[in-house]
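Complex record, two chains
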Amino acid sequence: MLSTKHLLGIKDLTREDLELIFSTADQFKEVINRPIKKVPSLRDITIANIFFENSTRTKLSFELAEKRLSADVINFSSSGSSVKKGETLLDTVNNILSMKVDIIVMRHSSPGASHFLANHIDATILNAGDGTHEHPTQAILDTYSIRERLGTVEGKKVVIVGDILHSRVALSNIFALQKLGAEVMVCGPHTLIPKYIDQLGVRVEHDLRKALEWCDVANMLRIQMERQLVKNFPSVREYSQHFGLNKELLESLDKEIVVMHPGPINRGVEITSDVADCENAIILDQVENGVATRMAALYLLAGKQN
Amino acid sequence: MAKVSILHGQLLDITISRLSQQLIENHGDFSNTVIIGLQQGGIILSERIKQKIKTMENIDVPCGQLDITFHRDDFRRRENILTPSKTEIPFLIENMKVILVDDVIFTGRSIRSALDAMMAFGRPSKVELLCLIDRKYSRDLPIEPSYVGKVVNSIQSQYITAEWKEDGHEDDNLWLINQ
């Protein structure tokens, strides 16, 4: 049984929680590869997907996971809604809750938005990304994909490359990897690495080649232009020359590493097309695992609502 | 906590042999038949039956395992969430005769869930149910096994546990336990 009522961030979870989600996801992965990919577990549950920020993968993945579990699903995105007319977050959500919703999956641009909701309303909250804070289900699917490819996460060396400063994926991944016993390094230009990140117990490296030579897994993050208020590097071209992963660099390493990317990919910036489509990349496995792990998280959270 | 042995050792082996004989009688060369053991109690039993048929008739019957956790009707109605076990059905069940195997039938609710779960793998031509122990007079649903090892009269507060050599026990034993 999970130790938390909500899934707000990896920080609140225990290692046992993560392992329970993984073992449950193993069974859901088998379910989504059946001829009939649906189970009736959540047929009496209604889930609202509330997205105040753009999303393709996460939104589709959650919706598919919910439907595969037979839940009733309603979708809401802030564009075209009454949020534009000045309605507050709490009012919006309370109105949705009046329609008898059991679980809320929310993405919001403000860090802590999901904690705020969890403190003020009765439903189970699942954070699908809150600003630059956390994106727990992404970290769960990332670590699950590492476990699937390498057998275990324990003892593996994982480098997270790119825009660490603005990335909720990075923070959630650091927590999840550390809880599961992996070593974590972050790599990127000085301007995109938070100043005191070493206090989280991660290594910091500014030379991509050195980072890649150290690691077993490289998680290449996207540059989040939409969150950058000032210019953190001279040009995209210069960034990609220093921190972009290309086939030449990958092949020059004296070992095989696993390449990951949470999407959306900016091909030619953080990762070139030939790397994104090569054998070492597990980017599409991550997407498939996203559905299975989200089914597991939803199933385990719903099970706590008696 | 008083416990009574219902079936054990050689007697249990004879019962499994008899059940296997009955299957051979009804399914002939098993060309169109598969066995599916239900997690967790039915897995070892289904393997034993497969072995018996192999020894008696030299036929390899395809044998799978099915977990019913996601199809149970008591999800969110019980204290603890059940952890799912492995499902592995490496064959098609479309138009096949399926023999579902479980160790104990009690209320019949697990079997209802199993029928539901099984349908995700296709539409079998016929489904039969084999249970080692039938706890009579306790059914919640109109479900009856096609093959029964032993009928036991029991009350709600009692339960049955199985010990198998495969799990590291010295001998096979089925116990009726008073709580």
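Note: The interface with chain A takes residues 67, 69-71, 75-77, 79-81, 83-88, 116-117, 119-122 of chain B (CB under 8 Å).
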